[in-house]
Amino acid sequence: MDDLIPIFVVGMLFIGLPWLIFHYITKWKQAATLTGEDERLLDELHYTARRLEDRLMTIERIIAADNPDFRPTMSSSEDVEHDYSRRN
Question: Which InterPro entries match (predicted)?
């Protein structure tokens, strides 16, 4: 029985511990990447955001045609340019 303890300890150190470390490294790397489902969801969200932006611009054009005092909001690309010009 006393002869088996060092064999178990050596086995755990050189086989079990590296296996455990590499197992969790692999799980960590898999969790850090986007899955196909994640990419599809992002594409769908991007498409929905574009449609909503188009709808908002259409509504703003209709309101601007009816009310000359209406000042439409800036689109996201104009916001970025506006913020950049303020900083410089």
Answer: Phageshock_PspB
